[in-house]
Write a structure and sequence with these properties.
The structure is a homodimer of 115-residue chains. With 115 residues, chain A is of the alpha+beta class. Chain A has one domain: Winged helix-like DNA-binding domain superfamily/Winged helix DNA-binding domain (Arc Repressor Mutant, subunit A), CATH 1.10.10. The first copy, chain A, has helices at 8-18, 21-32, 38-42, 49-61, 80-106, and strands at residues 36-37, 65-70, 73-78. In chain A, strands 1-3-2 form a three-stranded antiparallel sheet. The first copy, chain A, starts with 7 loop residues before the first helix and ends in a 9-residue tail after the last helix. Chains A and B meet through helix 1, helix 2 and helix 5 of A and helix 1, helix 2 and helix 5 of B. Chain A binds a DNA duplex (30 and 30 nucleotides) through residues 20, 22, 37-39, 47-51, 53-55, 58, 69, 71-74.
DNA sequence: AGAATACGCAACCTTTCGGTTGCTTTTTTC
DNA sequence: GAAAAAAGCAACCGAAAGGTTGCGTATTCT
């Protein structure tokens, strides 16, 4: 289950896509509703529709959302794969750090960490 | 223990700080070693020391690393709090999405997708 | 058919980002 | 004490980010 072969560039792109308040807000809205159009996502945000479209494009490029065109609307929904991959990475960072800390605490001057 | 009151702006800043390959590499290096100086972090990276310093500044501003000055060196180490908070958020996103999917699967024809 | 809705595309603007070079300061080494 | 090492600061640069406006195009409503 841990066989994710996630390229560092994809990971960086994922975090970069999440690294914007507006896009986080979009993600939050998409959690509540299954699918939302550009215009409905724009409601409540004080930016133009094009700005929202651009953000959605960025999220889609990062494969954080998926797009379905339905008539004159374009519906966006969350795509969890990348979210889970990013999640797994952060869990790994936290875990490794934890181990590093324990190593540090138990025997401080022990193991010349060259390698 | 889940009482994290994490501001969306901090969350966005955290992800933004992680949204760069170079900085991800720095984080990766800091996982292995407990503490590293700017110059030792620069080794193996094909950028100037100042560039590395800037990245570390960004990571420090996002509270992803902590700084300790020791003599003429400045040592950086991972600060896990924000990593864990970001991790918790992504877990939440994945979970909520999961529930949304179940909702969707159980009663599909409910909400007239027209067309 | 005509009007309105939903959206994409392109151009443009300003700010930020990632990076560089040059210089200064502090600490360590010889 | 002089040289070298480690790093901060400031200015500068090109590219990308985030935003806007204007216009074109398909789809839906009446």
């Amino acid at each position: 289950m841990t066989g994710h072969r996630l390229q560092p560039q994809d990971l960086a792109a994922t975090f970069a896509a999440l690294g914007d308040q507006r896009r986080l807000a979009i993600v939050a809205r998409l959690q509540e509703a299954d699918e939302l159009s550009v215009s409905s996502l724009r409601e409540g945000m004080e930016v133009s529709r094009q700005a929202v479209s651009k953000h959605l494009r960025i999220l889609a490029d990062a494969q954080l959302v998926s797009v379905v065109k339905s008539g004159r609307e374009t519906r966006y929904s969350l795509e969890p794969k990348r979210v889970e991959e990013a999640n797994a990475y952060l869990a790994l960072v936290a875990t490794k750090w934890d181990r590093a800390l324990e190593r540090l605490k138990s025997h401080v001057g022990q193991e010349t960490p060259d390698a």
